Amino acid sequence: MGMARSQDPDSASSQFYITLAEVPFLDGHYAVFGKVTQGMDVVRSLRAGDRMEKVRIVR
């Protein structure tokens, strides 16, 4: 999981993305700040335009 940004290196905002495979072309350009540890079925069901209504952070 990492932050989305435009061509401006300081443009990351509240958008994020989840990849389902390795994407080495992103290395060194984006910050990875999490990983999915459960619920890959949910990840695979995500579609463009979906919205999060609730987030739970477990430490």
Largest sheet: 2 strands, antiparallel
Largest sheet: spatial strand order: 1-2
Q: What is the H/E string?
A: EEH
The chain-level mean pLDDT equals 78
Helix/strand-derived category reads little secondary structure
Annotate the secondary structure layout:
Layout (H helix, E strand, L loop, with lengths): L1 E2 L12 E2 L22 H6 L14
Antiparallel strand pairs: 1-2
Description:
The protein has 59 residues and is mostly loops. The protein has one domain (1-59). Helices cover 10% and strands 7% of the residues. It has one helix at 40-45; strands at 2-3, 16-17. Strands 1-2 form a two-stranded antiparallel ribbon. The longest helix is centred in the last third of the chain and has 6 residues, at 40-45. The model has no long low-confidence stretch (mean pLDDT 78).
Task: Name its key features.
single chain; 59 residues; little secondary structure; 1 helix; globular
Short précis:
The chain contains one helix and two strands; from the N terminus they run ββα.
